[in-house]
Every structure is written in C-alpha cells, then in structure tokens.
# Entry
Amino acid sequence: MKLHHVGVAVRSLEEGIRHYESLGLRLAHREDVLSQQVKVAFMGEGPYVELLEPTSAGSPVSKFLDKKGPGQHHVAYAVPDLAAALAREMQAGRAPIDAAARPGAWGHEVAFLHPRHHGGVLIELLEERPARV
Ligand code: ZN
# Structure
C-alpha cells in the first residue's frame, strides 16, 4: 500500500492548475469524472496532487466546499488487490463508503473508506490499471 495522491477540493480547476504549476508541479492528467460530478487534474509525477472541482451542486465535493471551503479532501493509497483490501476493511467491522470497487479517474478502480473509521480522514483505495493514458 503506497501513497498515490492527495485530493484537494478547489472552486476553479484552472486556477488550481495554475497555482500548482507555480509551485513547480506539471499537469500530468485531467479528466471529467461523470459518476462523481467532478473535473479533476493530477499534478506532479507521483505521488500526485489531485485537484477536484465539482461540476454540479449535487457533487460530494460541492458539499465539502460548502461546509469546509477549499482544501485537503482525501488521501489515496494504491493497493495491489482492491477487492482484498475492501474485504479486510469489512472483516475489521468497518463499513466502507463503497462496498465494491467502481471506476475512478485515470482508468483506475477505486473505493472510498469512511472517515469516521479513520480518524476523520477520507481514504481512497485505488487499484492501478496498466492501460492508463
Ligand atoms: Zn482521489
């Protein structure tokens, strides 16, 4: 299990990209994730910063911005076997937000774990897929 990226909620993806470029990080990948109603940009060379801008008021990131404002949103770890990692979480008596893997950004399979079980930190588990563009 290794750190893959830190998710950061932003109000403007363009401004966020410019800001992180000014810190010296290059844009690695950008994409609209329709299922989560967000536009994302991965900055750097890994571990990445994933900027998230909501595309609708119903997006979970939109609710986060309303409550807490822009800032750190989640931490993502790459795991070799996402199904096994989710099974471990459930065996530990902790119900994850996603009971099964689902498609995430960049062609990866992802699942989120509940912050209530992890000291207030929203954790994303991610199984990297080789055919990423
Ligand atoms: Zn993420």
